Amino acid sequence: MGQQRTRRRFMKDCSTSAAALVALSATEPDVGAAATAREGTPYLCVTCGTQFAESAQPPAHCPICEDERQYVNPEGQKWTTMEHLRSSHKNIIKQEEAGLYSINTEPKFGIGQRAFLIQTGQGNILWDCVALLDDATIARVNELGGIAEIAVSHPHYYTAMVEWSRTFGGAPIHLHEAERPWVMRPDPCIRFWTGRVHELRAGLTLVSTGGHFEGYQVLHWPAAAGGNGALMAGDQPQICMDPKQVTFMYSYPNYIPLNGSQIRHILECLDPLPYDRIYGAFFVRGKGIIPSEGKEIVRRSADRYLRAIQG
Ligand SMILES: [Zn+2]
Ligand SMILES: [Zn+2]
Asked: For residue 29, with 0-12 CB atoms within 10 Å meaning exposed, 13-18 middle and 19 or more buried, which class applies?
């Protein structure tokens, strides 16, 4: 009897707090979102930048932020819209080397990663993605040859990839099958692939390494760095403050490491690729690039990591 009452009380408390949460998320979206809410708005999560499928009200939750690899804004889940984002932010597009442009949103929005536009003789590839897509960005990307294909390393950077695809002629978005559950705005332009290696155009390949996410993928670009090759790494391997070191984490914001077999598997996947340079997802000390000896730095950093986690 006593137990039953406790359980009933618990259920009541749960439903009360759930109702409070729904009320909170409905009444306290980002100011801009509240002003422009309408039927069929693809809301964006303010903390991670993920754009969700169209809905009349902001979604109740962001599964990307609620996952233990991310975090919910301590002040509560907040939402915004592309229209609002366009009024407060802009993208800086900068050439990094021949045929490579970084796309970075300022001021920082969401996780703060950058995307890259890679020019090939057979059409351009957008690697990773950012939440903001505005007229100035569309005009500049079109000047640079548009976008033929899109690939995103992992769900933290999916952001507004479907909007980017729709704007650039329905460019296919290549994601690993293992990440299907993390797609918050499903669309026919998304092409899931399976296995370890997936070829894109002009000799560029996606390689799935697991680790940070089960279907985590890097992009190998053999023509980069004067033909020595580049690894478009996203956040794994993550370029450290010391550009002679990289690291690998299950969660970067919550400092959850990977285990030894995951690190060895990542190395085994990366080792066959010819590359010298690494481009990371973030401007670290204004760069976020390991200009040369990248492969050796990855090997050395993995050895150091394995030594550090030995029990
Ligand atoms: Zn989120
Ligand atoms: Zn991540």
From this structure: buried
